[in-house]
Amino acid sequence: MSLFAPYLVRWSLEPDGAEIATPNSRLLPVRRSGVAAMLKIATEEEERLGADLLAWWAGDGAARVLARDGAALLLERAGGTRDLGAMARSGADAEAAEILCAVIARLHTPRAVAPPASCVPLERWFAALWPAAAREGGLLAAGARRTRALLDAPRDVVPLHGDVHHDNVLDFGARGWLAIDPKGLIGERGFDYANLFRNPDDSVALAPGRLSRLADVVAQAASLDRERLLTWVLALACVSAAWLGEEGKTSPSDLAVAELALAELDKQ
């Protein structure tokens, strides 16, 4: 609690639940003047960059930033009971995907103010893929070649959330579905839809025929070229595997999604 103490005083907050620890941040449910909020303190630079973009969205498609001081954020707290992951697991996968697509579209809507200069270009985001592909060959090399083609000729460049999935879009009650925890990237808009295919869990993501069905749903809902969308799915799965490889770990689920995406692309 000592980490949160200065901000509890500064922003006149009352603790309203147990502390939550994630790999990149610490969170504490709080109330300010009786209103539910979430106090978040970033422990990694990636989270701080994402906060720049969250503030820029100003509550349009994303949680509102109520106060900010360095690594600390005070955010509006989701209060609804609906859950996109549960929806996808219970047979409403396409409906959940359409909701996610609608939120992404809101996030990508042009704003009058320029996006934060801190947004990370996709070229930098994919830096780990090239050495991994050269070292491993095979699937990663095939993915790297196709990824290179995407990055060399980007379309519809916008600020990107960078980590849209079923647990990062929450039910905010009367405010509807809103995104949390952006990475703060910039690049082709199709990238932001790729993570839907690796979520909400392996049982859904790797179900027979799911990737192909979801490609149809997302391509139509987001007005995306299906082949290019699938290539972003392949690209993200491959770079995710490369990141884990840097830690000496393997990622069977990422590689499985990459294989499925490549097989689907070969049918095009």
Could you characterize the architecture of this molecule?
This protein is α+β, with helices and mostly antiparallel strands and 268 residues long. The chain has 2 domains: 5-76, Phosphorylase Kinase, domain 1; 84-267, Aminoglycoside phosphotransferase (APH), C-terminal lobe (Aminoglycoside 3'-phosphotransferase, Chain: A, domain 2, Alpha-Beta Complex), CATH 3.90.1200.10. 45% of the residues lie in helices and 17% in strands. The protein is built from 11 helices and 11 strands. Strands 1, 2, 3, 4, 5 and 6 form a 6-stranded antiparallel sheet that branches. A 3-stranded mixed sheet has the order 7-11-8. Helix 6 runs antiparallel to helix 7. The longest helix is centred in the C-terminal third of the chain and has 21 residues, at 226-246.
